[in-house]
Design brief:
With 210 residues, the chain is mostly helical. It has 10 helices and no strands. It has 2 domains: 70 residues, Orthogonal Bundle (Endonuclease Iii, domain 2); 102 residues, Endonuclease III, domain 1, CATH 1.10.340.30.
């Protein structure tokens, strides 16, 4: 896409959803961090179902630590990889208390040093909790960026780097959400809903659905 097409791409998504928000439920930066860790290889809907009672019982690192790994597992056992995730979250809470005064750090380096937190998770937290213009590349965004020609790349990091380079500054605050929602509900993996798509004429996808 040309720079003007890219700007128009975001402008159209923005017109349809001016203030996009995460579909994960959370109360504060800590619960957001936990929710994003839990969302790996799981749906937001499934995570929200599990965290409703969890966050009512523990919405701080101290409370989560008091709940313990066994108590945490009881809340998240419906989520994939819950054993590993419970272990990481308890360790994460210990690190937050010992190294950050119980607060979620606002730098990628500090976030990625926490158990169970990779670059994508860090980017989500930085964007949503701290309003930083990061773009977290998940499977939806990776597909949209490559399929449309917006920011092709062979790896998530390559796509992230390309998106950061081509996305106009005025769209970066919400780019992550616009792209993930577009991929989740319209530009789906198997049968993208090309008819009626607001950016169909800008999209380079050769096999558009009729």
């Amino acid at each position: 896409m040309t720079p003007s097409q890219i700007d128009q791409f975001y402008a159209r998504l923005a017109a349809l959803n001016p203030a996009p928000k995460s579909e994960l439920d959370y109360h504060n930066p800590f619960t957001l961090l936990v929710a994003v860790v839990l969302s790996a290889q799981a749906t937001d809907k499934g995570v929200n179902k599990a965290t409703r009672a969890l966050f009512a019982a523990a919405d701080t690192p101290e409370a989560m630590l008091a709940l313990g790994e066994t108590g945490l597992k009881a809340h998240i056992k419906t989520i994939g990889l819950f054993n590993t995730k419970a272990k990481n979250i308890i360790s994460l809470c210990q690190r937050l208390i010992e190294g950050h005064g119980g607060q979620v750090p606002a730098t990628r380096e500090a976030l990625e040093a926490l158990p169970g937190v990779g670059r994508k998770t860090a980017n989500v937290v930085l964007n949503i909790a701290f309003a930083q213009p990061t773009i977290a590349v998940d499977t939806h965004i990776f597909r949209v960026a490559n399929r449309t020609g917006l920011a092709p790349g062979k790896t998530p990091l390559a796509v992230e780097t390309a998106l950061e380079r081509v996305t106009p500054d005025r769209w970066k605050a919400h780019a992550h959400h616009w792209l993930i929602l577009h991929g989740r509900y319209r530009c789906t993996a198997r049968k993208p809903a090309c008819p009626g798509c607001p950016v169909a004429d800008l999209c380079a996808f050769a096999d558009k659905t009729a």
